[in-house]
Write a structure and sequence with these properties.
CATH class of the largest domain: Alpha Beta
Strand content: 25-35%
Number of strands: 18
Strand order of the largest sheet: 3-2-1-4-7-9-8-10-11
Number of domains: 3
Length: 393
């Protein structure tokens, strides 16, 4: 039986009955077999197996979607889907447009966000996978927005997108052989960039590690993190761009945005005890905005090539983790162990930037028997191996 047939089976009255039973029973790994055995006494084995798989996906999807228990998924589709908060943030740039296309729409995560943000728009959803397209339509049904969406099964390169004022595309970065190399996608980035037309809002989802040299002049590179977890990047066409680069940090309902802050070169100096060490959010680092962050908070750099920042006073910012420097000394494990013992150190968390070394092995060697936890920045200061012993600010 194909996956499309499994989907049809799950949507039947019997399928809905089994899915409801699984949601009510909330099976765990310890009792999963017992529940499946019990259900197979009343329902076909193939239906129970398909329902167990869908229920498992719905449970996993709760981390990404508020209404996951009512949605439909495939394993690949869920893995590739963007979380609701990021999708809604991206979709806000399409608000007010009359027509928007979601190319390579997958299971419809971004499509649903577009339907919410561009609330008056007619939407075009294109995907060459009939199963994912069918699931996207069912998920649109769940939100009551299917009437505004045209679903087209096709290669996006063959879709009629003439005259559309808005296009979002999430090109595939996986193939039948697994994940593609960094910077590769299907369709290729170069084809996606050609979607740009005067006045057209184009958003291209890409890997955060994309080489900035591949971003054309006039486009924006936006790195997006959920809390401290860097998730993805988006390229915005000139009609949508707000800066050459930006870092977005989403914390619950709060969205924090950092843009370039031109100014004088940032001072490079050695940190001292009592000062604040700032470890920038990975979105800031990936967007190339470390010096811009330093200017906005009045901080300096500890080295021209290192992302750590140092400030003479406490710093509170959503764009980095602040640590209070307890001691600052050249990197020497023997001396460092002695100093940590004097500080009654116990658990050790090492943040490594700019120095080679096995962090796990070094952590084991430095971990003490005391009661005080410390963070150690294993880094370089003025191009010299250095250790910064820190506590939470």
């Amino acid at each position: 039986m194909t996956l499309l047939e499994h989907l049809k089976l799950l949507r039947s009255s019997e399928g809905q009955e089994v899915l409801t039973a699984l949601r009510d029973l909330a099976p765990t790994a310890a009792i999963e077999i017992a529940i499946a055995t019990r259900l197979r006494k009343s329902f076909p084995s193939e239906l129970v197996t398909a329902a167990m798989s869908m229920h498992d996906l719905r449970v996993r999807a709760r981390a990404k979607f508020a209404r996951a228990d009512e949605m439909w998924f495939t394993r690949d589709g869920l893995e590739q889907a963007t979380s609701e908060s990021i999708a809604a943030h991206r979709a806000s740039r399409f608000a007010g447009l009359s027509k928007v296309a979601d190319l390579c729409c997958g299971i419809g995560g971004d499509l649903l966000a577009l339907a919410g943000q561009a609330s008056q728009a007619q939407l075009l959803a294109v995907d060459r996978d009939p199963l994912h397209l069918a699931i996207a339509a069912l998920n649109a049904d769940m939100l009551g927005v299917r009437g505004r969406i045209t679903f087209v099964e096709a290669d996006v390169r063959d879709a009629d997108i003439h005259g559309l004022p808005g296009i979002f595309i999430d090109p595939a970065r996986r193939s039948d052989r697994g994940r593609m190399s960094l910077g590769q996608s299907e369709p290729p980035l170069e084809w996606c960039l050609e979607l740009d037309q005067p006045g057209r809002v184009v958003g291209i989802k890409c890997a955060p590690g994309l080489d900035h040299l591949r971003v054309p002049d006039g486009w924006e590179f936006e790195a997006i993190a959920l809390g401290t977890d860097l998730k993805e990047a988006v390229l915005w066409s000139p009609a949508a761009a707000r800066a050459s680069a930006s870092a977005t940090v989403i914390e619950g309902d709060a969205i924090h945005r950092l843009q370039p802050c031109p100014g004088d070169p940032v001072t490079v100096r050695a940190p001292v005890a009592g000062e604040t060490l700032l470890d920038p959010n990975p979105a800031v680092t990936r967007a190339g905005l470390v010096e811009d962050l330093a200017r906005t908070i009045g901080a300096g750099k500890i080295d021209d090539q290192i992302g750590f920042l140092v400030a003479s006073s406490p710093v509170v910012t959503p764009f980095g983790r602040s640590l209070r420097i307890v001691d600052s000394l050249p990197w020497n494990e023997k001396h460092l162990r002695t100093r940590l013992r004097d500080l009654d150190a116990g658990a050790i968390d090492i943040r490594r930037r700019g120095l080679a070394g096995d962090v796990d092995a070094i952590t084991r060697r430095l971990r003490g028997k005391g009661g005080q936890p410390f963070t150690i920045a294993m880094t370089r200061v003025a191009n010299q191996p250095w250790a910064l012993i820190c506590r939470p600010a």
